[in-house]
């Protein structure tokens, strides 16, 4: 898939792509209940023709120096080891008590 991309002085990025955007929403009703777990697995979801999972560590992933933080991982499930997939993603975490969003883009 070819993507043309350029950035302006304000760091905005514009690009064209062949595939439409895909999304997945995970709503957590009670972070207090979720925080009793070491790891939460969203289960498999489909996006852009691939199977994905979202892993959430409510207390942080200690194996990745994440203790004391929320750790989020996006994992592709159905790709052979010798193939690559280029991905542009954004993760939004809504902080209900402060009514704002943490945004992570990769």
Assembly status: single chain
Structural class: mainly beta
* Strand residues, percent: 35-45%
End-to-end separation: 18 Å
- The ordered string of helix (H) and strand (E) elements is EEHEEEEEE
Number of E-state strands: 8
Largest sheet: 4 strands, antiparallel
Q: Looking at the structure, what is the overall shape?
A: globular
SS element count, helices: 1
Give the helix proportion (percent range): under 10%
Briefly say what this structure is:
The chain is mainly beta and 106 residues long.
Characterise the protein shown here.
The chain has 106 residues and is mainly beta. The protein has a domain at 28-79. The protein is 4% helix and 37% strand. It has 1 helix and 8 strands. The protein has one helix at 31-34; strands at 4-7, 13-16, 40-41, 45-47, 50-57, 71-76, 90-95, 100-105. The strands form 3 sheets. Strands 3, 4, 5 and 6 form a 4-stranded antiparallel beta sheet that branches. The longest helix has 4 residues, at 31-34. The two termini are 18 Å apart. Mean pLDDT is 82; it is low at 1-8.
List keywords for this structure.
MATH domain-containing protein, MATH/TRAF_dom, TRAF-like, globular, two-stranded antiparallel sheet, four-stranded antiparallel beta sheet, single chain, 4% helix, 106 residues
